[in-house]
Write a structure and sequence with these properties.
The complex is a heterodimer. Chain A starts with a strand and ends with a strand. By secondary structure, chain A is an all-beta fold. In chain A, the strands form two sheets. In chain A, strands 2, 4, 5, 9, 10 and 11 form a six-stranded mixed β-sheet that branches. A five-stranded antiparallel β-sheet of chain A has the order 1-3-8-7-6, with no helix packed on it. Helix content of chain A is about 0%, strand content about 50%. In chain A, a hairpin with a 2-residue loop joins strand 6 and strand 7. Chain A has no helices and eleven strands. By secondary structure, chain B is mainly β. In chain B, the strands form two sheets. In chain B, strands 2, 4, 5, 6, 9, 10 and 11 form a seven-stranded mixed β-sheet that branches. In chain B, strands 1-3-8-7 form a four-stranded antiparallel β-sheet, with no helix packed on it. Classes of the chains: A mainly beta, B mainly beta. At the A-B interface, strand 4, strand 5 and strand 9 of A face strand 5, strand 9 and strand 10 of B.
Chain lengths: ~120, ~110
């Protein structure tokens, strides 16, 4: 089983739609979670961290379910500019010698927002 | 804002050449990472460094080495480039505290002919 699993998509949605992505992780000791966005042929960029209580940033809502070991990303009122690949990223709990963490990246879910 | 700068966006080299990829970050981060990204495989960690002159192997270190002589700079070296090392290479950095995300450079698309 992969450490982090995502549905690769693509998810094709009309502009204005609400879309949700799920991601499951295998290591129950995982401690922090992130969503990154990656545009075609560009680098991944941090979209938001995911907190235990769930958190919202404008049209984006992230939630964590530790019992079921999944995190989700909800995008409301989709825009054409939201078209990208969304990477689920998990900190499996290994602390590096100098502090900080090694992260595990999912392979991404592709979103295409259409007119 | 964190700035991670990679020396080249596109690079074409020949089989057998020694290739250097450079990465510089301006946020005084302790940790620096090199990944490669291939379609369907996601990001795979090659090497990382948690301090000057300190390095650890990631998941796919074979055929690569790294150098960190200064805190802000982390170099990836392909000792003898091969065609299966054609890929997108991404450098990242993060501070030395737990639960912090990594910040990426804009990538080097390397082709080995």
């Amino acid at each position: 089983r992969k450490e982090v699993e995502q549905d690769p998509g693509p998810f094709n949605v009309p502009e204005g739609a609400t879309v949700a992505f799920n991601c499951t992780y295998s290591n129950s000791a995982s401690q922090s979670f992130f969503w990154y966005r990656q545009d075609c042929r560009k680098e991944p960029k941090l979209l938001m961290s995911v907190y235990s209580s769930g958190n919202e940033d404008g049209r984006f809502t992230a939630q964590l379910n530790r019992a079921s070991q999944y995190i989700s990303l909800l995008i409301r009122d989709s825009k054409l500019s939201d078209s990208a690949t969304y990477l689920c990223v998990v900190n499996p709990g290994r602390i590096l010698t100098g502090g900080g963490n090694k992260l595990t990246f999912g392979t991404g879910t592709q979103l295409k927002v259409e007119l | 804002d964190v700035k991670v700068t990679q020396s080249s966006r596109y690079l074409v080299k020949r089989t057998g050449e020694k290739v250097f990829l450079e990465c510089v970050q301006d946020m005084d981060h302790e940790n620096m990472f090199w990944y490669r990204q291939d379609p369907g495989l996601g990001l795979r960690l090659i090497y990382f460094s948690y301090d000057v002159k300190m390095k650890e192997k990631g998941d796919i270190p074979e055929g690569y080495s790294v150098s960190r002589e200064k805190k802000e700079r982390f170099s990836l070296i392909l000792e003898s480039a091969s065609t299966n090392q054609t890929s997108m290479y991404l450098c990242a950095s993060s501070p030395g505290q737990v639960h912090q995300p990594q910040h990426f450079g804009d990538g080097t698309r390397l082709s080995i002919l």
